[in-house]
Write the structure tokens for this entry.
Amino acid sequence: MIRDLHRVLGSEGSGLLNRLLVTQAGAAALQGVAFALLVPLLRALLGDASGEAWPWLTAFVICSLGYAILQAIGLSRGFTAGSRLSRVLHRRLAEHALNLPLGWFTAGRAAGFSRLAGQDVIQVMNMPAHLLRPLITSVLTPVTIVVASLFLDMRVALVLVLCAPVLLAVHLWSTSVVRRLDDGRDGAIAESADRVLEFVRNQSVLRAFGRTAEGYGALDDALVGEARGDRRLIQRGTPGLVSFAFAARMVFALLLALSVSWTLDGSLDVATMPALLVLVGRLTDSVSTAADLGAGMRIARGSLLRLRAVLDTRPFPRPAEPRLPDGADVEFDQVSFDYPQNTPVGLGPSAGRRDPLLANVSFRIPERSMTALIGPSGAGKTTVARLLARFWDTTGGTVRIGGVDVRDISPEDLAASVSIVFQDVYLFEGTIEDNVRIGDPEASEETLHRAATLAGLDQVVRTLPDGWSTVVGEGGTALSGGQRQRVAIARALLKDAPILVLDEATAALDHESEAVLTSTLQALASQKTLLVITHRLSTVLTAEQVLVMEGGRITERGVHDELMALGGTYAAFWDQRSRAEGWRLEPAR
Ligand SMILES: Nc1ncnc2c1ncn2[C@@H]1O[C@H](COP(=O)(O)OP(=O)(O)OP(=O)(O)O)[C@@H](O)[C@H]1O
């Protein structure tokens, strides 16, 4: 665990941790020696040579004082280490998050990250003061006592050395039993929490279908699972929890019985016996304290492992010698890609390689032109947009912007080159203006209003009582889907990057706003490189190039007339969409 702690802290926090460990180890050793000195001291006091007690008492007082001083230093270092650790961990997490692939931040991961930075960092920050210090004391003090007993009575030392592996075995067994049960119960609690959250979030759907908490099977099952986990922990975990304390008491009882028998047969003097028992009593108490720390250790270990898993995630490599894109044309050259968890693991004889999600995707979008990407759901269109902005790195082939591999462009230059509006728009807590200004905080009022007009957001702002100052709520919940999309489009337009990607960004717009956006796109096509993922016919007609994507491949490409003449997927798409949108194309005369 100390190794894990060093790893999550990095070099910055490790020195502090080492100093704490050394101080506490010194305190524990001095405490063990002080306990051991009680034996000759008591022997002298209870025996016939009370005059010999003074030197032992002096040594005992010196060791106890030394222990108290080191303990006080350890305590203060423990708390200092704790607060420093929290700062170091927060900084490391923030720095690491900056370098993680953007694709890593799924909704679930983002929620997990907040738990990591809150609860888990608190657990780890409490470790030095509340876990490590008592743990070191309760392990090293007994070890010192065992070593000291070699000089006091070899037989006691031998019994302690022989009992140590038995105690260790009982400890390992009880820890593994309780850890297994704890893990099972933690999983069940997490499942219940997820289901409750799902139940609360989806109230509108559940109520529409008349489902109450009792009738919501997933939540019922999760609660039953949680109760089962609790029962198991109580029934099977209790023997594990008490077994170690019981074994430690048994060692004490054994030494008590042996001491009595050695005293009776005259091989141990009467004055030494109580002193030895005091020593062994301290030893078993210390060892039991170590076992009591088990629950706290398990929780802290879980937090440490979660932090380690995130900090160990490989950051995106930054280019050693970054290059600037020469222009704003986009090129996908034989690109293949699979999301990390989709990579075949090759388990079992039947497991073979399946096709990657994207396979040999090649296309070029000339600078200042518009390309529409269409295709069925799950074809890989959004993935293409993500690869263009380097949310992930390709597994094969190259994505280029302005003739330069995106992996050779610095993240800052890449971010400045590409603006993206995704289907699932996220707005930050704040006003409409705050949200649009994220695109360019320094933009003038005039530029802001121009972007809003182009996105059709000015109409929305005019109808809202608070206009630009309307608070959108976290995630933008105070706005409709179409309004949120217009805010996101205005934000992207304000950023004024040379490449603009719209991923189904018009899906929630009404016909009027769509018409505004279509003419905006037409106007923008002469200034920017546009990639528009859409199923809207008006947008597709505006494009200079249409790419049809199916099953991770580009299956058709060309302009509207060429693709219609092919009579393939595009023609079928056109036919189906024009019926849905009530469109009819007049034959060319
Ligand atoms: N983060 C992710 N991790 C793993 N798999 C993913 C991830 N995102 C998408 N996928 C999978 O990749 C495939 C392609 O998804 P993608 O979103 O690119 O398709 P799409 O053509 O944009 O679909 P839609 O039109 O429905 O948005 C899908 O099977 C999807 O389940």
Q: What stands out?
A: The CA atoms of residues 163 and 517 lie 80 Å apart. The pocket of adenosine-5'-triphosphate is lined by residues 103, 106, 339, 341-342, 357, 375, 377-383 (CB under 6 Å).
